């Protein structure tokens, strides 16, 4: 369509349109659901259609799986080499109720694994379990799409919409889950030594002591390698909003040689009165990251050469 809009004479006839050049990997996956035991077995057999070395910079691969929306059950394959890696590994997810099957999904991510344990997301796909055959096994190709975490915030938001186009109503619950989450944008400028953390928005923030919507703010604390406080700041308060939008950016001065030795803690509080507050949850990024997603976010920020990297993170309970 773009070509015809420019009046190009090289447009191919419709039936012979070539496949898109950009491929992000295709997983051979088998699902086996047991409704009596409420367990789901997922077998990752192999990956094909992996991008070239020039695009990924890697020749070793690993697949990460997480059951949405709770994100508590995770798994990863072994690391395999070559252009068509074979895994044939089976993972079990428990407590998947058959009557609630439409509320679940499995997110697949293909990682390029490089030296010094560096990882880079090649592609990802959210597979909705509404597609499952509840009787017996089902083998399907899971075609991966570009991961939102490779670029800025705008593409992250549109990626969420693309992934959820089949069911807009369940989009929020699947992409963000019912657990409190926060969208953070990180950017580091090695020349100036400026670490920018943008608190963009929150999701499913709760008032733990009452049914009314919470009044929330986010506190950011930067610690050195010894756990000593280097700097702290906080957002303004968003009143009566379970899904608040902050869009506030905070800049910390961190020299390049310090970047691997600092920890950034983000704590979300509900301010109940002048003197009373309660913590809704927290995450940490950097040296003492609170989880794999947080560590990956920090790593991608360091590798992104001055481009902002935005990611959703599930808050940990206080």
TrEMBL record:
Pfam families, per the entry: C2
Family annotation (Gene3D superfamilies): C2 domain
Superkingdom of the organism of origin: Eukaryota
Name recorded for this polypeptide: SYT14 protein
Gene Ontology molecular function terms on file: identical protein binding; phospholipid binding
Tagged with keyword Repeat: yes
InterPro entries reported in the protein's UniProt record: C2_dom, C2_domain_sf, SYT14/14L/16
Biased composition (Polar residues): 1-12
Subunit description: Homodimer. Can also form heterodimers.
Location of the region described as Disordered in the Swiss-Prot/TrEMBL record: 1-20
Keyword Mitochondrion: no
Family designation: Belongs to the synaptotagmin family.
Native organism: Podargus strigoides
Keywords: Repeat
Function (record text): May be involved in the trafficking and exocytosis of secretory vesicles in non-neuronal tissues. Is Ca(2+)-independent.
Residue stretches making up the C2 domain: 23-142, 178-313
């Amino acid at each position: 369509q773009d070509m015809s809009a420019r009046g190009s004479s090289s447009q191919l006839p419709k039936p012979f349109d070539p496949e898109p050049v950009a491929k992000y990997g295709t997983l051979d996956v088998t699902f086996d659901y047991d409704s009596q035991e409420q367990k789901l077995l997922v077998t990752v057999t192999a990956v094909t259609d992996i991008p070239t070395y020039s695009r990924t910079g890697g020749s070793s691969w690993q697949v990460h799986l997480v059951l949405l929306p709770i994100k508590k059950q995770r798994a990863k394959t072994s690391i395999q080499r070559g252009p068509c890696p074979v895994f044939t590994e089976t993972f079990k997810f428990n407590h998947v109720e058959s009557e609630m099957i439409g509320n679940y999904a499995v997110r697949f991510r293909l990682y390029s694994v490089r030296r010094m344990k560096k990882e880079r997301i090649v592609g990802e796909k959210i597979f909705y379990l509404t597609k499952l055959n509840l009787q017996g096994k089902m083998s399907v190709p899971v075609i991966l799409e570009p991961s939102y975490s490779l670029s800025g915030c705008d593409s992250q938001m549109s990626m969420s919409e693309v992934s959820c186009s089949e069911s807009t109503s369940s989009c929020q619950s699947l992409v963000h889950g019912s657990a409190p989450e926060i969208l953070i944008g990180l950017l580091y400028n090695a020349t100036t030594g400026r670490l920018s953390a943008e608190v963009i928005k929150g999701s499913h923030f709760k008032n733990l002591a009452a049914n009314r919507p919470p009044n929330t703010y986010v506190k950011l604390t930067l610690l050195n390698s010894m756990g000593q406080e280097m700097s702290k700041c906080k957002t303004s308060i968003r009143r009566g909003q379970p899904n608040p939008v902050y869009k506030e950016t905070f800049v910390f001065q961190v020299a390049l040689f310090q970047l691997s030795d600092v920890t950034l803690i983000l704590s979300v509080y509900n301010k109940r009165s002048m003197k009373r507050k309660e913590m809704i949850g927290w995450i940490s990024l950097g040296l003492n990251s609170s989880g794999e997603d947080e560590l990956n976010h920090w790593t991608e920020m360091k590798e992104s050469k001055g481009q902002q990297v935005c990611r959703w993170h599930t808050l940990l309970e206080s």
